[in-house]
Amino acid sequence: MDHTKKKVYCCLECGLHYEDEKLAKKCEAWCGEHRSCNLEITSHAVENKIKKIINKNSNEQRTK
Ligand SMILES: [Zn+2]
């Protein structure tokens, strides 16, 4: 474990991580009940935030 990293909370149903415990619990409740992910919730997941940053960077590198 890297202790310099921010603490994140894991949804035990889908395995996504959240910086906010409330969001993780919300996701877990949704995943457990609906057996699918709520995009509004999962868009806040650490994994999806990283993807956004990577996409942004690759767009910036692509010059005309
Ligand atoms: Zn989940």
Outline the structure in words.
With 64 residues, the chain is mainly alpha-helical. The protein has one domain (9-61). The protein is built from three helices and two strands. A two-stranded antiparallel sheet has the order 1-2. The longest helix has 16 residues, at 46-61. It is elongated and about 45 Å long. It binds zinc ion. Residues 11, 13-14, 16, 27-28, 31, 37 line the site of zinc ion (ZN).
- Determine Rg (CA atoms, Å): 14 Å
The pLDDT mean sits at 87
The tally of structural domains comes to: 1
Count of individual beta strands: 2
What fraction, in percent, of the residue positions are helical? Answer: 40-55%
Distance from first to last alpha carbon: 41 Å
The major sheet is characterized as: 2 strands, antiparallel
SSE topology string:
EEHHH
Question: What small molecules does the structure contain?
Answer: zinc ion
**Multimeric status of the protein:** single chain
How many individual helices?
3
Strand residues, percent? 5-15%
